[in-house]
Amino acid sequence: MAMVVGGGDCAALYFYLLPLFVWITTLLTFCQGRQYDHPAQYRYSFIKPASSFSLPLSSAMPATYDYIIVGGGTAGCPLAATLSRNYTVLVLERGGTPFANANVSFMKNFHISLADISPKSASQMFISTDGVFNSRARVLGGGTSINAGFYSRASQSYIKRVGWDAKLVNESYIWIEKQIVHRPVLNRWQRAVRDGMLEAGISPFNGFTYDHLYGTKVGGTIFDRFGRRHTAADLLSSANPYNLHVFVHATVHKIEFDTTGKKPNAVGVIFKDENGKKHRAILSKRCGSEIIVSSSAIGSPQLLLLSGIGPKEELEKLNISVVLDNEFVGKGMSDNPMNSIFVPINGRPLKQSLIQTVGVTKLGVYIEASSGFGQSKDSIHCNHGIASAEIGQLSTIPPKQRTHEAIQRYKRRKRNLPHEAFNGGFILEKIAKPLSKGQISLLNTNINDNPSITFNYFSHPADLSRCVEGIRIVEKILKSKHFTNYTKLDDETMEKLLNMSVEANVNLIPKHTNDSKSLEQFCKDTVITIWHYHGGCHVGKVVSPDYKVLGVERLRVIDGSTFDYSPGTNPQATVLMLGRYMGVKILRGRLGKEAGV
Ligand SMILES: Cc1cc2nc3c(=O)[nH]c(=O)nc-3n(C[C@H](O)[C@H](O)[C@H](O)COP(=O)(O)OP(=O)(O)OC[C@H]3O[C@@H](n4cnc5c(N)ncnc54)[C@H](O)[C@@H]3O)c2cc1C
Ligand SMILES: *[C@@H]1O[C@H](CO)[C@@H](O)[C@H](O)[C@H]1NC(C)=O
Ligand SMILES: *[C@@H]1O[C@H](CO)[C@@H](O)[C@H](O)[C@H]1NC(C)=O
Ligand SMILES: *[C@@H]1O[C@H](CO)[C@@H](O)[C@H](O)[C@H]1NC(C)=O
Ligand SMILES: *[C@@H]1O[C@H](CO)[C@@H](O)[C@H](O)[C@H]1NC(C)=O
Ligand SMILES: *[C@@H]1O[C@H](CO)[C@@H](O)[C@H](O)[C@H]1NC(C)=O
Ligand SMILES: *[C@@H]1O[C@H](CO)[C@@H](O)[C@H](O)[C@H]1NC(C)=O
Ligand SMILES: *[C@@H]1O[C@H](CO)[C@@H](O)[C@H](O)[C@H]1NC(C)=O
Fold first, then answer.
1. Which terminus of the chain faces fewer neighbouring Cβ atoms within 10 Å, N or C?
2. What pLDDT, in 10s, does the model give residues 466-512?
3. Are the beta carbons of 341 and 473 closer than 8 angstroms?
4. CA of residue 587 to ligand 2 center, whole Å
């Protein structure tokens, strides 16, 4: 099959032939019943590499856009699809497309994708100053293209507190769910965890539901039953293709402002294409046109700072001309600490599962689980479900000591470890609302580099005591009759495993669970991330309740950077929902009943 050719007349020709090509391939794939198996990287005619930006556009497209969305991620894609119904929309995404990338498309490659640290990878690794390894999305679809797929809505009380329109929230969730969310098929491990949680008192059983309810439940997933990932990028199929341009490998370096008026007015953005060439995209002068930053909890504050919106002194240190002094940009960052216990399984290799079932406790901790398999000791295919040493989650090594050398040492030792070290699963606890806060600050003016990121895990004592409670709950689940009946671990095996747990870099049940002080140490030493970091552009501090950047005109931020708490047990459902929700809100605001949504 053809690929898009990136330059010159050839691309122009391609542009005209594309509708025909799409029609034929759609027909072919439909006849073969393989709609999701499209080999082309650019699935939709409106997606193109950034280098083709300066080519003459179709006459139907104006040279300026009603909306410029920076970041085609979890919030950006549903937002673009919705706004394009009635307005011209440009999406600039720094990563490539997820459509022909096996690392993205298959659940079995979850950890492989995270371990890929090349500049072309769909994930960009970062290490917070806390010493915890972490990842950011760098691909169309954003987090939904690299995440663990679990889908669960925010609680009713969260929605009320934020002040969202509950009816539109429900409609927006449903809009997402119909397109990309699936009901998981539970394997033995997930069933055992579910039953163990119920026995440990996390009740009632709420069955399969997207709703956030106390007790144990099975949630949704963006993986279908064949282990294929569906992402926010798939939501672009709901767009009006004549009103939308999506450029990939388009890294926005700066938002430009007209500062001659009363307030700074956003007018366009500067971005670089895959060849490093600079381009300028310009906002339409029509009343209501806006630049919307959806670059994630790290990318959005970083871009605001680089564009001159942030703490004055910090900007001046890097010679960034100040457009607006706002001390809160990049502040209030937090990441929900995750601690886990590995449970080895005697016997048959366990099927991989990411997160499917969750315990919502009244103690402010969520319990989830994943399982992995001991396929081959030498390869990266050997993992522990969602956590593996290769992605820096060396959980028996305290955060600051988790270096690249430590990973290499682990890889060498891994060959000598027994099979049991890899066959099993994690039961994890995540703190619902961490009170510990941190910040991001610029290290340089290069948007491709990570800023300095600090989360200050467990700096607030309440977070630490909640972690201790969580570990005790996990222990209860492990010791439940249902669970032990499933794992069938005798004392002798247990001892052998405990002995090797350090080398295997996995946690087993801590020895001193009745000692809070030692459990506190366990929490600090084994903390990893569940990648639910959020904040940096909080509502009321950086943006208004309708996500308009305070103090400037024609600029919004819509994504996970606006959250003070991560919604639901896992955030993606609500980030996706927010993209759709704000798209509809904006259309209704401009068109009233005429919007037809
Ligand atoms: C490994 C991992 C596992 C996770 N597991 C789950 C899970 O199972 N369930 C769940 O609910 N949540 C999960 N999450 C969290 C969830 O995926 C994120 O909270 C969510 O995707 C964030 O959405 P966002 O729109 O804020 O940012 P993103 O989805 O990250 O979107 C931001 C986009 O902006 C682009 N961008 C950034 N800067 C620029 C720039 N300067 N120019 C152009 N483009 C730019 C990025 O490339 C990216 O595509 C996980 C996250 C990760 C990383
Ligand atoms: C907006 O788009 C929708 C869907 O294409 C259409 O039904 C509606 O009439 C449009 N509204 C206006 C005011 O153009
Ligand atoms: C997938 O990841 C592996 C390493 O983790 C890397 O070698 C490979 O190039 C990646 N594939 C793609 C298509 O990006
Ligand atoms: C939204 O849906 C939830 C169930 O998913 C329901 O409890 C709630 O009442 C609904 N809210 C509105 C306003 O319809
Ligand atoms: C800022 O500008 C001054 C004066 O031009 C220069 O001396 C200094 O090195 C610059 N600092 C940075 C971080 O670029
Ligand atoms: C233990 O597991 C077996 C199947 O492996 C099942 O038949 C039995 O009911 C289980 N017992 C308990 C207490 O769960
Ligand atoms: C524990 O490991 C050490 C070496 O690391 C070994 O000498 C010892 O016999 C092991 N003990 C058990 C009970 O396996
Ligand atoms: C834990 O409790 C047991 C039994 O009550 C006791 O013997 C042991 O000393 C306690 N351990 C710690 C570390 O407090």
1. N
2. 999 999 999 999 989 999 898 887 777 777 777 777 778 888 888 77
3. no
4. 10
